[in-house]
Amino acid sequence: MQDVRCHRQRLRKRTSACCMFATSGSAWPPIMKEPSGDGESFFHLAVTGQLESAYFPMGPDGSSLFCRYDIVAGPDWELVSGMRSGITQSAQPEDDYRTVVFNMPLEFTMKSTNPHGWPQVVFSLYGNNFWNVETNRGYARIHCPLSGMKRTVRAPLFVPKFSNIWSAAMSWLTGVNPEMRDPKILADGSKHKGLACESYGELVVSLQAISRGCSRMGLDWGQSYD
Protein backbone atom coordinates (compact mmCIF):
# COMPACT_ATOMS: atom_id res chain seq x y z
CA MET A 1 0.00 0.00 0.00
CA GLN A 2 2.84 2.39 0.79
CA ASP A 3 4.38 1.83 -2.68
CA VAL A 4 1.04 2.63 -4.34
CA ARG A 5 0.74 5.88 -2.37
CA CYS A 6 4.25 6.99 -3.39
CA HIS A 7 3.47 6.23 -7.04
CA ARG A 8 0.25 8.33 -6.85
CA GLN A 9 2.15 11.26 -5.32
CA ARG A 10 4.70 11.21 -8.16
CA LEU A 11 1.91 11.23 -10.78
CA ARG A 12 0.24 14.21 -9.07
CA LYS A 13 3.52 16.20 -9.16
CA ARG A 14 4.00 15.53 -12.87
CA THR A 15 0.39 16.49 -13.64
CA SER A 16 0.63 19.73 -11.69
CA ALA A 17 3.87 20.64 -13.50
CA CYS A 18 2.28 20.08 -16.93
CA CYS A 19 -0.75 22.16 -15.96
CA MET A 20 1.51 24.99 -14.81
CA PHE A 21 3.25 25.16 -18.26
CA ALA A 22 -0.12 24.90 -20.04
CA THR A 23 -1.67 27.78 -18.09
CA SER A 24 1.39 29.99 -18.56
CA GLY A 25 1.00 29.75 -22.37
CA SER A 26 4.50 28.35 -23.03
CA ALA A 27 5.12 25.27 -25.10
CA TRP A 28 6.22 22.00 -23.58
CA PRO A 29 8.91 20.99 -24.07
CA PRO A 30 10.41 24.50 -24.64
CA ILE A 31 11.51 25.18 -28.28
CA MET A 32 15.05 26.50 -28.87
CA LYS A 33 15.22 29.05 -31.72
CA GLU A 34 18.18 29.32 -34.07
CA PRO A 35 19.99 32.66 -34.16
CA SER A 36 18.67 34.75 -37.05
CA GLY A 37 22.03 36.37 -37.86
CA ASP A 38 20.51 39.88 -38.12
CA GLY A 39 23.21 41.19 -35.82
CA GLU A 40 26.07 40.38 -38.19
CA SER A 41 28.40 43.36 -38.58
CA PHE A 42 30.34 42.35 -41.70
CA PHE A 43 29.86 42.04 -45.45
CA HIS A 44 31.16 39.56 -48.02
CA LEU A 45 33.04 40.28 -51.25
CA ALA A 46 33.32 37.53 -53.89
CA VAL A 47 35.87 38.08 -56.67
CA THR A 48 36.24 35.97 -59.81
CA GLY A 49 38.29 36.39 -62.96
CA GLN A 50 41.54 35.32 -64.54
CA LEU A 51 45.08 36.33 -65.31
CA GLU A 52 44.83 36.31 -69.08
CA SER A 53 48.30 37.06 -70.43
CA ALA A 54 51.50 39.08 -70.30
CA TYR A 55 52.41 41.46 -73.12
CA PHE A 56 55.89 42.73 -74.01
CA PRO A 57 56.22 45.29 -76.85
CA MET A 58 59.59 43.88 -78.02
CA GLY A 59 59.17 40.35 -76.72
CA PRO A 60 60.06 38.94 -73.27
CA ASP A 61 63.65 38.94 -72.09
CA GLY A 62 63.48 35.24 -71.23
CA SER A 63 61.61 31.99 -71.77
CA SER A 64 59.46 29.61 -69.70
CA LEU A 65 57.59 32.41 -67.94
CA PHE A 66 55.31 31.76 -64.99
CA CYS A 67 53.49 34.06 -62.58
CA ARG A 68 52.65 33.97 -58.88
CA TYR A 69 49.82 35.95 -57.31
CA ASP A 70 49.19 36.97 -53.69
CA ILE A 71 46.02 38.46 -52.21
CA VAL A 72 46.73 41.33 -49.82
CA ALA A 73 44.10 43.07 -47.69
CA GLY A 74 43.77 45.12 -44.52
CA PRO A 75 43.73 43.69 -40.98
CA ASP A 76 39.93 43.65 -40.84
CA TRP A 77 39.60 41.40 -43.88
CA GLU A 78 39.32 37.62 -43.55
CA LEU A 79 39.61 35.03 -46.32
CA VAL A 80 36.45 32.89 -46.32
CA SER A 81 37.07 30.69 -49.36
CA GLY A 82 39.62 30.34 -52.13
CA MET A 83 43.40 30.49 -52.09
CA ARG A 84 45.43 33.40 -50.78
CA SER A 85 48.23 32.71 -53.28
CA GLY A 86 48.76 30.63 -56.38
CA ILE A 87 51.10 30.00 -59.29
CA THR A 88 50.51 29.53 -63.01
CA GLN A 89 51.89 26.95 -65.38
CA SER A 90 55.07 27.67 -67.34
CA ALA A 91 54.25 29.28 -70.70
CA GLN A 92 56.10 30.24 -73.86
CA PRO A 93 55.54 33.30 -76.09
CA GLU A 94 52.94 33.07 -78.85
CA ASP A 95 53.70 33.31 -82.58
CA ASP A 96 53.98 37.09 -82.38
CA TYR A 97 56.75 36.74 -79.71
CA ARG A 98 55.05 39.47 -77.67
CA THR A 99 52.21 37.72 -75.83
CA VAL A 100 52.49 35.00 -73.21
CA VAL A 101 49.10 33.41 -72.41
CA PHE A 102 48.41 32.06 -68.89
CA ASN A 103 44.58 31.94 -68.51
CA MET A 104 45.00 31.40 -64.77
CA PRO A 105 41.62 31.49 -62.94
CA LEU A 106 41.26 33.66 -59.83
CA GLU A 107 38.42 33.08 -57.36
CA PHE A 108 38.15 33.98 -53.69
CA THR A 109 35.69 35.34 -51.12
CA MET A 110 36.54 37.64 -48.22
CA LYS A 111 34.58 39.32 -45.46
CA SER A 112 35.23 42.49 -43.51
CA THR A 113 33.66 44.92 -41.07
CA ASN A 114 34.60 47.99 -43.16
CA PRO A 115 36.04 48.81 -46.62
CA HIS A 116 39.40 50.01 -45.24
CA GLY A 117 42.29 47.98 -46.66
CA TRP A 118 40.39 47.00 -49.83
CA PRO A 119 41.83 43.75 -51.29
CA GLN A 120 44.63 43.94 -53.83
CA VAL A 121 46.32 41.29 -55.96
CA VAL A 122 50.13 41.38 -56.27
CA PHE A 123 51.70 39.54 -59.21
CA SER A 124 55.30 38.31 -59.47
CA LEU A 125 56.56 37.23 -62.90
CA TYR A 126 59.54 34.86 -63.29
CA GLY A 127 61.40 33.30 -66.22
CA ASN A 128 64.71 31.89 -67.42
CA ASN A 129 67.46 34.14 -68.76
CA PHE A 130 69.96 33.34 -71.54
CA TRP A 131 72.03 31.33 -69.00
CA ASN A 132 68.90 29.25 -68.29
CA VAL A 133 68.83 30.65 -64.74
CA GLU A 134 65.48 31.53 -63.19
CA THR A 135 65.10 35.21 -62.30
CA ASN A 136 62.28 37.66 -61.81
CA ARG A 137 60.81 39.47 -64.82
CA GLY A 138 58.69 42.04 -63.05
CA TYR A 139 56.01 42.82 -60.49
CA ALA A 140 52.53 44.31 -60.77
CA ARG A 141 49.56 44.99 -58.51
CA ILE A 142 45.88 45.85 -58.98
CA HIS A 143 42.91 46.64 -56.72
CA CYS A 144 39.90 44.35 -56.78
CA PRO A 145 36.87 46.01 -58.43
CA LEU A 146 33.93 47.34 -56.46
CA SER A 147 30.81 45.25 -56.12
CA GLY A 148 28.82 44.88 -59.33
CA MET A 149 31.74 45.86 -61.54
CA LYS A 150 33.69 43.98 -64.19
CA ARG A 151 37.11 45.25 -65.19
CA THR A 152 39.88 44.30 -67.59
CA VAL A 153 43.11 45.87 -66.36
CA ARG A 154 46.45 46.19 -68.13
CA ALA A 155 48.78 46.42 -65.14
CA PRO A 156 52.31 47.70 -65.94
CA LEU A 157 55.20 45.43 -64.98
CA PHE A 158 58.21 46.97 -63.26
CA VAL A 159 61.58 45.36 -62.58
CA PRO A 160 63.71 46.46 -59.58
CA LYS A 161 67.22 47.69 -60.40
CA PHE A 162 70.41 48.02 -58.38
CA SER A 163 71.30 51.57 -57.40
CA ASN A 164 74.99 50.62 -57.14
CA ILE A 165 76.85 50.71 -60.47
CA TRP A 166 78.96 47.62 -59.71
CA SER A 167 75.92 45.57 -58.70
CA ALA A 168 74.12 46.76 -61.82
CA ALA A 169 77.09 45.66 -63.96
CA MET A 170 77.09 42.19 -62.37
CA SER A 171 73.32 41.97 -62.91
CA TRP A 172 73.80 42.77 -66.62
CA LEU A 173 76.57 40.15 -67.01
CA THR A 174 74.77 37.37 -65.18
CA GLY A 175 71.26 38.24 -66.39
CA VAL A 176 69.89 37.97 -62.83
CA ASN A 177 67.60 40.78 -61.66
CA PRO A 178 67.25 41.77 -57.99
CA GLU A 179 64.23 40.20 -56.28
CA MET A 180 62.02 41.38 -53.44
CA ARG A 181 61.92 39.22 -50.32
CA ASP A 182 58.25 40.00 -49.79
CA PRO A 183 56.47 41.35 -52.89
CA LYS A 184 53.32 41.94 -50.80
CA ILE A 185 54.82 45.20 -49.51
CA LEU A 186 53.93 46.66 -52.92
CA ALA A 187 50.34 46.91 -51.67
CA ASP A 188 51.48 49.55 -49.13
CA GLY A 189 52.90 52.66 -50.76
CA SER A 190 54.76 53.69 -47.60
CA LYS A 191 56.92 50.53 -47.62
CA HIS A 192 58.58 50.80 -51.04
CA LYS A 193 59.57 54.44 -51.24
CA GLY A 194 62.79 55.06 -53.11
CA LEU A 195 62.68 51.73 -54.97
CA ALA A 196 64.73 51.98 -58.18
CA CYS A 197 63.00 50.19 -61.03
CA GLU A 198 62.19 50.29 -64.73
CA SER A 199 58.92 49.42 -66.43
CA TYR A 200 58.65 46.96 -69.31
CA GLY A 201 55.58 45.00 -70.34
CA GLU A 202 52.16 44.58 -68.76
CA LEU A 203 49.80 41.95 -67.39
CA VAL A 204 46.24 41.63 -68.69
CA VAL A 205 43.84 40.74 -65.84
CA SER A 206 40.03 40.56 -65.89
CA LEU A 207 38.10 40.62 -62.60
CA GLN A 208 34.51 41.01 -61.47
CA ALA A 209 33.08 41.26 -57.95
CA ILE A 210 29.76 40.87 -56.13
CA SER A 211 28.98 41.59 -52.49
CA ARG A 212 26.44 40.58 -49.86
CA GLY A 213 25.42 42.37 -46.68
CA CYS A 214 26.47 45.88 -47.76
CA SER A 215 23.01 47.45 -47.49
CA ARG A 216 22.71 46.23 -43.90
CA MET A 217 25.87 48.17 -43.07
CA GLY A 218 24.84 51.27 -45.02
CA LEU A 219 27.41 50.78 -47.82
CA ASP A 220 26.52 51.86 -51.36
CA TRP A 221 28.92 51.30 -54.27
CA GLY A 222 26.86 53.37 -56.72
CA GLN A 223 25.60 52.29 -60.13
CA SER A 224 27.45 49.33 -61.62
CA TYR A 225 28.91 49.43 -65.10
CA ASP A 226 30.99 47.20 -67.34
Automatic annotation (TrEMBL):
- In the UniProt record, which is one GO cellular component term? cilium
UniProt-annotated location(s): Cytoplasm, Cytoskeleton, Cilium basal body
Q: Which domain of life is it from?
A: Eukaryota
Keywords assigned: Cell projection, Cilium biogenesis/degradation, Cytoplasm, Cytoskeleton
* Pfam families per record: B9-C2
**InterPro entries attached here?**
C2_B9-type_dom
Q: Where does it primarily localize? A: cytoplasm
Q: Name one GO biological process term.
A: cell projection organization
Q: Into which family does the record put it?
A: Belongs to the B9D family.
* Protein's name in the database: B9 domain-containing protein 1
Source organism: Culex pipiens pipiens (Northern house mosquito)
